[in-house]
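[PROTEIN RECORD]
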Amino acid sequence: MTTKSYLFSHEPDWHEHRRGSHHHLPQAVQSWAYEAGSLTQRLRDYYGNEVTVSILFHQWRTPFLSERRQLQLPPHRHGLTREVMLHKNGKPLLLARTIIPEETIKVAHRNLSHLGTRPLGEVIFSYPDLERITMDLTLIKPSTWTSTAQQNANIAEPIWGRRTVYAIQKRPMLVSEFFLPEILAH
């Protein structure tokens, strides 16, 4: 089990979000990075129901070191790793990587391990006790992405992303979202 990601050749470099640091982000990125609601819903509000999910990777894996730290997982503990691309008629809009520990799946009333092509945001934002715990930001160079991800998502420039720890009934999950150029134009 050497593959930890379809998207990344190595772990991205994340920076903890600090209050007041948003002024260093481009305006278009701020709008998406600080969106309090579901990014899926925001995409559907703009593009309609043509926004669909393609599953790129869906396996139990040991998360990257910083992901384990965010989730407070022991070194050899697995999490369900789900990587997807949201697109409109094949045009890439957003990439996402989610790590869900087994304990979080157990407390969730809906089965987070069998979402299929249903967007995660549709499910987790329906939980009344969903909490946003922390958020990190990153600007990822093209060389950090796998060549397959670069090709499938048309990545030719640095891509901004946010990583959020959410909790459902006090159990964490990590959701990383990457804003592709198409959505930053809107």
Helices lie at 27-33, 39-47, 65-71, 102-107, 120-124, 147-152, 181-184.
